[in-house]
Amino acid sequence: MITKIRTEAQYHQILAIIERYIEKATEGNGFHSLSKIESAELAALSLLAEQYEDHILKIMPIPLSINVVVQHKIKELNLTQAKLADLLGLGASKLSQILNGKREPDVSFLKAVHTKLGISGDFLLENV
Q1: For a surface tag, which of 65, 90, 110, 119 has the fewest beta carbons within 10 Å of its beta carbon?
Q2: What average pLDDT does the chain have?
Q3: H helical segments located in the chain
Q4: % residues pLDDT > 70 (the chain)
Q5: Does residue 3 fall inside a structural domain?
Q6: What is the domain-level CATH number for residue 82?
Q7: pLDDT of 37
Protein backbone atom coordinates (compact mmCIF):
# COMPACT_ATOMS: atom_id res chain seq x y z
CA MET A 1 0.00 0.00 0.00
CA ILE A 2 1.22 3.52 -0.72
CA THR A 3 2.34 5.73 2.15
CA LYS A 4 1.88 9.13 0.51
CA ILE A 5 -0.28 10.47 -2.30
CA ARG A 6 2.01 12.07 -4.86
CA THR A 7 -0.31 12.84 -7.76
CA GLU A 8 -3.87 13.90 -8.36
CA ALA A 9 -4.44 10.62 -10.21
CA GLN A 10 -3.42 8.66 -7.09
CA TYR A 11 -5.72 10.85 -5.02
CA HIS A 12 -8.69 10.04 -7.27
CA GLN A 13 -7.83 6.32 -7.24
CA ILE A 14 -7.80 6.35 -3.45
CA LEU A 15 -11.11 8.22 -3.33
CA ALA A 16 -12.61 5.52 -5.56
CA ILE A 17 -11.40 2.77 -3.20
CA ILE A 18 -12.75 4.67 -0.19
CA GLU A 19 -16.09 5.06 -1.96
CA ARG A 20 -16.25 1.30 -2.65
CA TYR A 21 -15.68 0.56 1.05
CA ILE A 22 -18.36 3.06 2.04
CA GLU A 23 -20.81 1.51 -0.44
CA LYS A 24 -20.02 -1.96 0.91
CA ALA A 25 -20.55 -0.75 4.48
CA THR A 26 -23.82 0.93 3.48
CA GLU A 27 -25.10 -2.22 1.80
CA GLY A 28 -24.02 -4.27 4.84
CA ASN A 29 -25.85 -1.95 7.26
CA GLY A 30 -22.72 -0.44 8.80
CA PHE A 31 -18.96 -0.44 8.95
CA HIS A 32 -19.03 -3.56 11.12
CA SER A 33 -19.75 -5.45 7.87
CA LEU A 34 -16.21 -4.72 6.66
CA SER A 35 -13.46 -7.17 7.53
CA LYS A 36 -10.69 -6.03 9.89
CA ILE A 37 -8.33 -5.72 6.93
CA GLU A 38 -10.86 -3.64 4.97
CA SER A 39 -11.52 -1.40 7.98
CA ALA A 40 -7.79 -0.88 8.50
CA GLU A 41 -7.26 -0.08 4.82
CA LEU A 42 -10.22 2.32 4.80
CA ALA A 43 -8.81 4.15 7.83
CA ALA A 44 -5.30 4.35 6.32
CA LEU A 45 -6.56 5.54 2.93
CA SER A 46 -8.83 8.11 4.55
CA LEU A 47 -5.86 9.54 6.44
CA LEU A 48 -3.80 9.68 3.24
CA ALA A 49 -6.62 11.49 1.44
CA GLU A 50 -7.03 13.92 4.35
CA GLN A 51 -3.29 14.71 4.39
CA TYR A 52 -3.32 15.31 0.62
CA GLU A 53 -6.36 17.57 0.92
CA ASP A 54 -4.84 19.55 3.81
CA HIS A 55 -1.31 19.96 2.41
CA ILE A 56 -1.68 19.88 -1.37
CA LEU A 57 -5.26 20.89 -2.13
CA LYS A 58 -5.43 23.18 0.92
CA ILE A 59 -8.91 21.95 1.79
CA MET A 60 -9.44 22.65 5.44
CA PRO A 61 -12.42 22.50 7.74
CA ILE A 62 -14.47 25.68 7.75
CA PRO A 63 -13.47 27.69 10.81
CA LEU A 64 -16.28 28.34 13.24
CA SER A 65 -15.27 31.75 14.55
CA ILE A 66 -14.45 35.12 13.07
CA ASN A 67 -11.17 35.18 15.01
CA VAL A 68 -10.02 31.91 13.46
CA VAL A 69 -10.92 33.08 9.95
CA VAL A 70 -9.03 36.34 10.40
CA GLN A 71 -6.02 34.44 11.81
CA HIS A 72 -6.05 32.23 8.70
CA LYS A 73 -6.12 35.35 6.51
CA ILE A 74 -3.15 36.79 8.43
CA LYS A 75 -1.16 33.63 7.64
CA GLU A 76 -2.44 33.41 4.07
CA LEU A 77 -1.49 37.01 3.30
CA ASN A 78 1.73 36.80 5.33
CA LEU A 79 0.80 39.82 7.45
CA THR A 80 1.62 40.87 10.96
CA GLN A 81 -1.17 42.02 13.25
CA ALA A 82 0.19 45.57 12.99
CA LYS A 83 0.09 45.47 9.16
CA LEU A 84 -3.41 44.01 9.27
CA ALA A 85 -4.53 46.75 11.65
CA ASP A 86 -3.22 49.35 9.18
CA LEU A 87 -4.92 47.59 6.27
CA LEU A 88 -8.22 47.48 8.13
CA GLY A 89 -7.89 51.04 9.43
CA LEU A 90 -8.04 49.89 13.05
CA GLY A 91 -5.83 50.42 16.06
CA ALA A 92 -3.39 47.60 16.72
CA SER A 93 -4.56 47.18 20.32
CA LYS A 94 -8.23 47.01 19.26
CA LEU A 95 -7.41 44.33 16.66
CA SER A 96 -5.36 42.37 19.18
CA GLN A 97 -8.21 42.47 21.72
CA ILE A 98 -10.72 41.26 19.13
CA LEU A 99 -8.47 38.45 17.90
CA ASN A 100 -7.75 37.32 21.46
CA GLY A 101 -11.44 37.28 22.37
CA LYS A 102 -11.12 40.09 24.93
CA ARG A 103 -13.35 42.39 22.89
CA GLU A 104 -16.36 41.71 20.71
CA PRO A 105 -16.07 42.57 17.02
CA ASP A 106 -17.84 45.84 16.23
CA VAL A 107 -19.44 47.04 13.01
CA SER A 108 -16.30 48.86 11.82
CA PHE A 109 -14.20 45.70 12.29
CA LEU A 110 -16.77 43.48 10.55
CA LYS A 111 -17.10 45.89 7.64
CA ALA A 112 -13.32 46.16 7.28
CA VAL A 113 -12.66 42.40 7.27
CA HIS A 114 -15.49 41.95 4.78
CA THR A 115 -14.28 44.61 2.33
CA LYS A 116 -10.50 44.33 2.81
CA LEU A 117 -10.11 40.58 3.40
CA GLY A 118 -13.06 39.30 1.40
CA ILE A 119 -14.59 37.39 4.29
CA SER A 120 -18.20 36.53 3.55
CA GLY A 121 -20.73 38.92 5.02
CA ASP A 122 -23.08 36.00 5.64
CA PHE A 123 -20.38 34.20 7.63
CA LEU A 124 -19.67 37.35 9.65
CA LEU A 125 -23.35 37.92 10.47
CA GLU A 126 -23.91 34.30 11.42
CA ASN A 127 -20.88 34.23 13.73
CA VAL A 128 -21.08 37.56 15.56
Answers
A1: 65
A2: 90
A3: 8-27, 36-55, 66-76, 81-88, 92-99, 107-117, 121-126
A4: 97
A5: no
A6: 1.10.260.40
A7: 95
